[in-house]
Automatic annotation (TrEMBL):
This is DNA double-strand break repair and VJ recombination XRCC4, C-terminal. The keyword Membrane does not apply. Residues 472-482 have a biased composition (Basic and acidic residues). Keywords: Coiled coil. Residues 467-602 are annotated as: Disordered. Residues 389-430 form a coiled coil. Gene3D superfamilies: 1.20.5.370. It comes from Penicillium italicum (Blue mold). It comes from the Eukaryota. Residues 494-504, 588-602 have a biased composition (Acidic residues). InterPro entries: XRCC4-like_C.
């Protein structure tokens, strides 16, 4: 339920009390929330005003180390009117609903009960204009937080908690006897109502929101342990000798009638029983001895003796069906009939049968004879039945709570599993969608590039430049060595040029033919590439002509005579002279040849 706009329920709110003494408590943490919502239809039929109960941990405004519990009861709007205007909700205000917890804690405080938490403060008032129901009632109850923790099923029934469980039982019996003197107990006693401190071995009883009167004359029995969850009823009989059972058997001789049978244990054996029955007019009695149970079998009974003992124990309410044999008791039934016409010598015969589909087999019977001197205490029988019903109700309530808790856990886990499966599917779909999107973008880019290449005009010069800038792997090591040699020859030519420049300072003549011959002799062992030879021939011719003209100009600058024709050393390899071509023609031929060579290599 939303408490937005209701600051009195906010964490950190300071609540002022005047009873039983002036004090202030600060809300620290919310523990539980119980909303009893009601419709207008239920309210008109006397269900009482709807209300909510919040439980908090709080601390004293003057001492934050002093802890306590606070419970707040307050009226809430009728279902469907939560968001109406405050003046409309104000019309729903009613006198305070009676909550027994405050009255019980007041009484126990007044009588100074030592085994329950002490009532510290309380306040009964009305909600303000910012309340969920303006002018509706609101009640605060604060009680002491005693040392220890509430017991739980896991704590008490842990296989290693045997000594602790026995210590708790011993202490609980003393505490219960003390609580019985004050006439109050929790309406639905359970382990959670027992607060036990293992260090100090102190115990308190708490949880009086749904309290019930406790008869001071009521005696403590083993059933008390069962009621509070400190014992589990065993399957064998004899554990509740001081707790007789009242059984009801339908009459087979008169439709709609029945007999009541009071069963109590009288001997050391589990099935040493005393039976007292009545059909509403006369008493009937019988004794059952476990040693003589075989006499009660039918003549055609074919089962074992152990099966018969279990059958009689189940029919007389001394045990339950074994959990490891859930189908064993299927079809077992018992009915009563009255025989005898004499008013003083009638008998009640309780017959045990087993029904298998349409076949009914008689297993046995036991007879109760009329005894008018036997007293039938119907009031006592009614009390026993009510106590038994209360015990069963507590067990059903405990099992229902555990079932609901398990069901909520399963439901929550299923929701988480569904969320994970949904997230997994959504994630996979997103991955596939992203992959498809990237793939389509790549395909589109490839198609656009293909269209662009198909529609574009290729410039052979650009292609040649690009191909020339990228070394071809197919040339291998020979291409690299040729490149290195070409670089060496260029460096040698540069060095020669540097030597000619020094002739201006030092007029020592050098023989260019000797230099060329030296280069050629150094390069003769290698086998040049045909293209390299063509490029080298062209380069050598140009460089030689430039060197010769420069030398002639330095020797006789006044003479303008063309240099004499000479044979290049490369003629030794080719076997004939190399033809000179026009100065512009070699560059064009080299360019064309280079382009064709690059295309062939691609």
């Amino acid at each position: 339920m939303s408490i937005i706009g209701f600051p009195e329920l906010y964490i950190g709110t300071e609540v002022t009390f005047t009873a039983p003494s002036p004090q202030k408590w600060v809300i620290e943490e919310k523990l539980t929330e119980d909303v009893q919502q009601m419709t207008k239809w239920r309210l008109d039929r006397g269900a009482g005003p709807p209300f909510a109960v919040f439980k908090y941990v709080c601390h004293s405004a003057t001492d934050s180390e002093k802890k306590a519990f606070m419970r707040i009861y307050f009226q809430i709007p009728i279902a469907g009117t939560e968001y109406q205007r405050p003046e409309i909700r104000q019309q729903q205000a009613t006198p305070p609903r009676k909550h027994r917890e405050l009255d019980v804690l007041k009484d126990l405080r007044l009588r100074q009960c030592p085994v329950v938490p002490t009532l510290l403060a309380y306040k009964e008032g009305k909600q303000g204009n910012d309340g969920v129901v303006p002018d509706g009632y609101i009640t605060h109850v604060v009680w002491d937080k005693v040392p220890g923790k509430s017991l739980s099923q896991d704590k008490v029934w842990d296989p290693k908690s045997g000594p602790l469980r026995e210590a708790i039982r011993v202490k609980f019996r003393d505490i219960w006897e003390e609580l019985r003197r004050y006439g109050w107990e929790p309406g639905m006693p359970a382990l959670e109502n027992i607060i036990y401190d293992e260090v100090t071995e102190t115990m308190h009883i708490a949880g009086f929101r749904d309290s019930a009167p406790l008869d001071p004359e009521h005696k403590f029995t083993d059933m008390t342990f069962v009621d509070w969850g400190l014992a589990i009823p065993p399957s064998n009989a004899g554990w509740e000798k001081d707790n007789p059972r009242i059984l009801r058997f339908p009459r087979s001789d008169e439709t709609g009638s029945f007999v009541l049978v009071h069963v109590s244990c009288t001997g050391p054996a589990p099935l040493d029983l005393s039976l007292t029955a009545t059909e509403g007019e006369s008493p009937y009695v019988s004794l059952v001895k476990q040693a003589r149970l075989k006499e009660l079998q039918a003549k055609n009974y074919q089962g074992s003796n152990d099966e018969w003992v279990k059958t009689v124990s189940l029919i007389l309410g001394q045990c339950v069906a074994p959990p490891n044999e859930p189908d064993w008791a299927t079809g077992l039934e018992a009915s009563a009939s009255i025989s005898g016409s004499d008013e003083d010598n009638k008998e009640i015969v309780i017959t045990i049968r087993k029904r298998v589909q349409t076949i009914t087999q008689r297993l046995g019977a036991f007879t109760l004879t009329q005894d008018d001197e036997q007293a039938v205490e119907l009031f006592e029988w009614t009390g026993i039945t009510a106590a038994r019903a209360h015990t069963l109700e507590q067990q059903v309530s405990s099992l229902t709570s555990r079932y609901r808790l398990a069901e909520d856990t399963i439901h929550r886990l299923n929701e988480q599993l569904e969320e994970l499966m949904h997230a997994k599917t959504e994630h996979e779909n997103r991955l596939v969608a992203n992959f498809v999107q990237v793939l389509n973008e790549k395909k589109l880019k490839i198609r656009n590039q293909q269209r662009l290449l198909a529609s574009s005009t290729v410039d052979p010069t650009k292609v040649s430049e690009i191909q020339a800038s990228i070394p071809e792997e197919s040339h291998g090591v020979a291409e690299k060595s040729h490149s290195i040699k070409r670089s060496a020859r260029k460096m040698s030519d540069t060095d020669d040029s540097d030597g000619f420049e020094q002739m201006d300072i030092d007029p020592i003549k050098t023989d260019p033919d000797a230099s060329n011959n030296q280069d050629i002799d150094d390069e003769e062992p290698s086998t040049p590439h045909p293209l390299d030879e063509e490029q080298i021939n062209s380069t050598t011719d140009d460089d030689s002509s430039q060197d010769e003209s420069a030398q002639l100009k330095r020797v006789s600058p006044a003479r303008d005579i063309a240099p004499p024709q000479r044979d290049l050393p490369f003629a030794k390899r080719t076997g004939g002279p190399i033809k000179r071509t026009a100065p512009t023609q070699p560059s064009e031929d080299a360019e064309e040849t280079g382009g064709e060579t690059d295309d062939d290599e691609l």
